[in-house]
Amino acid sequence: MFILGFHFPADMGNTVPDEKVVEKLDESGVDFGTVSEIKMVSEAHGVKEELSYTNKDTFLFKALVHYAKTAETDYMIYTNRYQMSELSKRIDSDDETMALCKKFDSMALFRIEAA
Question: Which of 1, 27, 94, 103 is surrounded by the fewest CB atoms within 10 Å?
C-alpha cells in the first residue's frame, strides 16, 4: 500500500492508521521549517485560481511541503491530493484547511510551489 508516496507493508492491509502516515512524514528527512508558504494554481473549465496556504501547524502543510520538495513535477497528482485531503480532514480542524481540502476533492488541475 502506498500513501503519499510512502510504502506500507501488505500485512497492514488497506487500513493504515493515520499516525503511521504522520510518523513516516515526520521521518521523511524533509525540512519543513524552510518553507513559509505553499502557492498553488488550480484550473477547472478554463478558470484559474491562485491559492496560498500558510498554516504551518497542520498535517496538510507538512504533506504539501513534502510533495513540493520531493515530487518530480509541480503538477499535483489527484491520488496524492485526495489522500492529503482525507487524512487532513481527520487530523486537522481549522476552517482554512477544510476549505482547501474541499478544493482538493475536485477534479481541477493543481500546480504547486513551495516558497
Answer: 27
pTM for this entry:
0.91
Cell of 83: 489522500
| Model pLDDT for residues 15-60, shown as the tens digit of each residue | 899 999 999 999 999 999 999 999 999 998 889 999 999 999 999 9
Residues 6 or more apart in contact with residue 92 via CB below 8 angstroms: 58, 59, 60, 98
C-alpha cell at 22: 504522520
Q: How far is CA 105 from CA 12, 16, 39, 47, 98, in A?
A: 25, 20, 18, 17, 11
Which pLDDT score is estimated for 63? 96
> How big, in percent rounded to 5, are the helix, strand and coil portions of the chain?
45, 20, 35
Cell of 3: 500513501
Q: Given its phi and psi angles, is residue 66 left (phi above 0), alpha (psi -120 to 50 degrees) or beta?
A: alpha
Q: CB 76: neighbour CB atoms within 10 A?
A: 21
